[in-house]
Design a protein that fits this description.
alpha/beta, 7-stranded parallel β-sheet, two-stranded antiparallel ribbon, about 45% helix
Length: about 525
């Protein structure tokens, strides 16, 4: 500014000197106008034009500096910002932290719904919550540090509810009771994958793992599994549900894998035999690949069906079986046999930690009402006073274990040191006819027992030898069949109340119904 003023003064002085009396002008000069002088005059005009443009540019720059820099600074120096902010409609603004501490206003800090620590050295403009606005839930840790005044009664209730629900299951129609979950330290809590975890056995295994305090990931495509079987855990922070088909690879980070995914009832696995084989082979291969990559221990739920129609009774793990490789059951029987082969190939070649459980007939709540197996069919028919159907003469034998016993066996096998196949079943043996009569009595039904043609490749006898389970993992069934049946009958009563009527599935292939 000073330089521009001095420059303007010099220009004015020279102009006055040029116009002073006695000073010759171009008009008064007698010198002839030559070519060179004309050229010089042209250059002077151009230079004068550029000097004027330079002056205009300087004026523009000075104006911008005044408008964008000096003026805002002057306004901030003299303006009352609190008064300006108060003029904004429907907003109450305040500054926190540094300004509050400088003012020494304890009341202002108490009214801060987003308290920040005293170490903060910045100032923030934040909307202040009023009675018209929705209260913001605070983290429990913040509430503990800042005191009870930091939360409203609604927020306090939300935190309490969250804490309760993170320690237990939520009662549902399918699972009308509460299960408490343990709290494990990080170094003991495992991430556990359960394929087929929304199915009958899988959902009960999930209950066991959740109550132990582990993080559980359920993978299920809901072909036979049902979301209601795990609905009581959906709210829990340790539970995750992934809708996925195990015949496709999946990338997860887990410590253990319980591989249960596969239809298990004859009508269901015969409905799509190719998919059943793919589930047992490709699904197992994908899970083994995952176990190899993340160094997880994997348990395969194999089946007593690998023994086929046995010629050895009871069946020990050393028995190789008697299986029809091209019969209607072969898609399941042979698929599980190949799955076992894969397990031990990965163990021997890649060092994968494996466990194999051969499961015998199991029953309990959450059985699919249309799975076509003897327990569910007999109970559903008895409760509706419909004919109890037996396929064959009823002299074929079966062994039935309650689902909680099976889950305990799976858990012990996974966490034990034994890695050869283990039978998990109840050695208590019944004929199919005597079992139907037993259920008829327990339900006090008016049903009649009728006999239909025998199913193809239906085994004549089935009973596990559990010497290995007792010796190697310390397991044997403890629930009596009668006690388990009573619980299962109560469950199916509730199912019938909701469904109104259920038509049991016959021995042929059938798609699972919801």
């Amino acid at each position: 500014m000073v330089q521009m003023t001095n420059r303007a003064s010099n220009v004015a002085a020279r102009h006055a000197a040029d116009q002073a009396p006695g000073t010759p002008t171009r008009a008064n000069k007698a010198e002839p106008i030559t070519r060179s002088k004309c050229h010089h005059g042209s250059n002077s005009g151009i230079m004068s034009y550029f000097q004027k443009g330079k002056s205009h540019l300087m004026v523009l720059v000075v104006g911008m500096m005044l408008g964008y820099i000096l003026l805002p600074v002057l306004v901030l120096e003299v303006a009352d910002m609190d008064g300006v902010l108060k003029t904004i409609p429907d907003q109450k603004m305040y500054t926190s932290s540094v300004q509050t501490r400088h003012q020494g206003s304890a009341a202002a800090q108490d009214n801060n719904p987003y308290r920040i620590s005293s170490a903060d050295t910045y100032q923030y403009l934040r909307p202040k919550i009023t009675t018209e606005t929705v209260p913001r839930a605070l983290e429990p840790e913040v509430a503990a540090v800042e005191g009870s005044n930091a939360m409203t009664s609604v927020e306090q209730r939300l935190v309490e509810d969250h804490n309760i629900l993170s320690r237990q299951s939520m009662p549902t129609r399918t699972t009308p009771y509460v299960m408490k979950t343990n709290t494990l330290p990080d170094h003991q809590r495992k991430k556990i994958l359960v394929t087929g975890g929304a199915g009958f056995v899988g959902s009960h295994l999930v209950d066991k793992l959740m109550m132990e305090g582990h993080e559980v990931i359920v993978v299920d495509n809901f072909f036979t599994g049902q979301k209601k079987n795990v609905a009581h855990w959906l709210h829990h922070p340790n539970f995750s549900l992934v809708v996925h088909d195990v015949t496709e690879p999946i990338q997860l980070e887990v410590d253990q894998i319980y591989h249960l995914a596969c239809p298990a009832s004859p009508p269901h696995y015969q409905y799509n035999p190719v998919k059943t084989i793919k589930t047992s082979t490709m699904g197992t291969l994908n899970m083994l690949g995952l176990a190899k990559r993340v160094r997880a221990r994997m348990l395969l739920t194999s089946t007593s069906e690998i023994y086929g129609d046995p010629t050895v009774h009871p069946q020990p793990e050393s028995y190789w079986g008697n299986v029809n490789t091209i019969g209607p059951r072969s898609c399941y029987d042979e698929g599980k046999r190949v799955a076992e082969t894969m397990m031990y190939s990965y163990k021997n070649q890649n060092g994968v930690e494996i466990r194999v459980a051969r499961i015998f007939n199991t029953f309990g709540p959450r059985m699919h009402p249309n799975d076509g197996r003897v327990v569910s069919n007999f109970i559903i028919q008895s409760l509706q006073n419909k004919n109890i159907t037996i396929y064959g003469e009823g002299d074929q034998t079966r062994s039935f274990q309650y689902v909680s016993d099976l889950v305990e066996g799976l858990y012990k096998l996974m966490n034990g040191d034994y890695d050869l196949p283990v039978n998990l079943g109840n050695p208590e043996e019944y004929t199919v006819k005597s079992f139907a009569e037993y259920i008829h009595t327990l339900t006090k039904s008016e049903s009649k027992i009728i006999f239909l043609p025998k199913s193809e490749d239906d085994p004549t006898q089935r009973r596990p030898e559990i010497v290995t389970a007792k010796a190697k993992i310390g397991w044997e069934p403890v629930v009596k069949v009668e006690s388990g049946l009573k619980k299962t009958i109560d469950y199916f009563r509730r199912v019938l109340e909701d469904a109104g009527e259920i038509i049991p599935t016959g021995p042929g292939a059938a798609k699972p119904e919801a």
